[in-house]
Amino acid sequence: MGIVLKQSLNNTIVTYIGFAVGAINTLFLYTRFLTDEYYGLVSVILSYSAILMPILAFGVPNTLVKYFSSFTDKKDKDSFLTLMLLLPLFLIVPMAIASYFAYEIIGNFISQTNPIVKGYVWYIFLIGMSMAYFEVFYSWSKVHMKTVFGNFMKEVFTRLGITLLLVLVYYKWISVDTFLIVVVILHLIRMLIMKLYAYYLRMPVLNFNFPYNLKEILQYSTLIILGGSAAVVLLEVDKVMINHYIKIENVAYYSVAIFIATVISVPSRSMHQITYPLTAEILNKNDKQELKSLYQRSALTLFIVSGLIYILIILNLNELYKLLPAEYGNGFTIVFLIGLAKVSDAVLGNNNAILYNSDYYKALLLLGVFLAIITILFNMWLIPVFGLIGAAVASFTALFIFNSLKLLFVKIRFGILPFTNQMFKVLVLLIVVVLLFFYLEFPFHAIINIVLKSLLIISIYVAALYKFKLSEDVNGILNKFLKK
Predict the structure, then answer these.
(1) Three-state SS at 480
(2) At what angle do helices 214-245 and 36-56 cross, to 10 degrees?
(3) Does the keyword Transmembrane helix apply (predicted)?
(4) What is the DSSP string of 408-467?
(5) How far is CA 62 from CA 180, 251, 291, 353, in A?
(6) Cα–chain-centroid distance for residue 236?
(7) Is 213 strand, coil or helix?
C-alpha cells in the first residue's frame, strides 16, 4: 500500500485543489457572472460531452490499463500502444461525418424544450473527442505509475482556465459566446499537453503488427464502451434529461447541488488512479490474498475519509446555502441523496478495478447497461412529476442498486467482501459525531460558522480514529505527521 498511499495522498491534494477552484466557479462565479440560463447551457454541453466521451474513446483507457502489464516484450508493447492510439479514430471519424450531415436533426433533438442548446452540437462533439483522447493519454501515464500530473490536468487545469474566463466575462472583456468557444479550446489544449506528457514517459514506436490477442482486446474494448457509457449515464443523464423536460435554468440549480455532493467522491477518484493499475497487476499474478488485502484496506480508508466529508457537508449545508443566491438554496434533499450514494460507492474500495480488470467484466458491463436504461426510465417518470427531486431520487436509486449488485458479484466470484469490524466502528463514530453536532449552531457569519463547526468535527473525529486505531494506514499517516 506504500505507493498507493503516497500517490493517493498527492492525488487527493491535487484533486481537492481542483475542487476548491471548482467550488469557487460553481458556487460563486457561475451563479453571479452568468445568467441561470447560460449556466444551465454550460452544464448541458459538458454533460452531453461526458456521455459522448466513452463512446469516442472506444474503451481504450480501460483496455490500456488492463493489458499493458501483460506484455513483457518491447515490440509487443509497441504494437499494443499503436493499436490503442488508433482505435478511437474508428468511431471519432464516422461520428464526425454523421454530425456534419445530421447537424439539424441532432440540434432539434437536444433542443426540444430549450432552443438555446441547438447551436452547440459541434461544441459537444469537440469537447467529447478531447475528453476521450485525454483519458487515453492519462491511462498511458497510469500504467507507468505516474498519475499526479495527469490528475492535475484533469482536475485543476480546465477549472483554472474557466475561472479566468468567468472573470473576463464579468468585466465584459469577452462575450458569453466567446467564453463557450474558449472552453472548447481549453479541452483541446489539455488533451495536447497530456499527450506530450504521455510521450515523455514513453515515446510510441509505431508497430502495425498488432498483438497476438487482438481479437480479445477488441472484444474487451467494445464491451467497455457499453460499460463506460453506462457508468457515465448513471452520473450525467439526470442533467441532460432535466434539459429535455423542464427549463434549462433548473440544470444550473441542480448542478450546484450535485457539485456539493460530488466532493465526497474526491478521495475515491484519487485512490482509483493508482489502485486500477495495481489491481490489474495483482489479478494478472492471481494473488488472491493481496487482492483481498487491497480491497479491504482501500474500502476502509475511503469510508473513513468519504464519511467524514459527507457529515461535514450535511452538518454545514444550511450555512453554505446562505452564501448562494436564493434560487440555488433548495437542494438539501438532492445533496443528501446523491451524497449518500457517493459514500456507498466509496465503501466498495477498488471494487470497480477488480471487476473491470477480471474475466467477469462482461456480466458487469451488461448489468451497467441495464441499470443505465433503468436510470433513464426513472428520470423520464420522476422529473416531469417531481422536478429536480425526482432526478435525485432516480440517480440515487440506480447508483445504490448498481453498487449493491457489484458488491454481490465480487463476493460470489472472488469470495471477498470489503467490510471489516473496523468499518462498523467507523460507522458508529460517524453517527455519534452527527448526533453531537446536528443541533449545534453559532451566532456568527455563515463562513465563520462553517469553519468553526468543521474544525471541531474534524478534531474529534481524527482524535477518535487515532486513539482507537481504527485504520493502520490512517494511523501511519498521522504518526508521520505528528513526528514532523
Answers:
(1) helix
(2) 160
(3) yes
(4) HHHHHHH---S--HHHHHHHHHHHHHHHHHTT---SS-HHHHHHHHHHHHHHHHHHHHHH
(5) 30, 30, 19, 9
(6) 10
(7) coil
Q: Which residue has the cell 428520470?
A: 379
Per-residue pLDDT tens over the stretch 4-14: 556 666 777 88
Residue 176's CB is within 10 A of a number of other CB atoms, namely: 16
Residue 461 has pLDDT above 90, yes or no: yes
Q: Please spell the DSSP secondary structure of 280-326, one letter per residue.
A: HHHHHHT-HHHHHHHHHHHHHHHHHHHHHHHHHHHHHHHHHHTTS-G
Determine contact, residues 471/300, Cβ cutoff 8 Å. Answer: yes
Burial classification of residue 194, based on how many CB atoms lie within 10 Å of its CB (0-12 exposed, 13-18 middle, 19 or more buried)? buried
Residue with cell 449545534: 440
> How many alpha carbons lie under 13 Å from residue 196 in its C-beta half-sphere?
6
What is each CA distance from 64 to 61, 68, 280, 283, in whole angstroms? 5, 6, 10, 15
**Nearest of 138, 110, 134 to residue 122 by alpha carbon:** 110
Q: Which residue has the cell 446555502?
A: 321
Average pLDDT over residues 380-389: 92
d(CA 299, CA 474): 12
Distance between first and last Cα of the chain: 21
pTM of the model: 0.82
Nearest to 123 by CA among 172, 179, 167, 165: 179
Give percent of the chain with pLDDT exceeding 70: 97
> What grid cell was written down for 150?
495527469
pLDDT in tens, 322-359: 888 888 888 889 999 999 999 998 899 888 888 877 77
Mean local confidence (pLDDT), 362-385 = 85
Evaluate if residue 33 carries a pLDDT over 80.
yes
CA angle 144, 150, 154 (to 5 degrees): 150
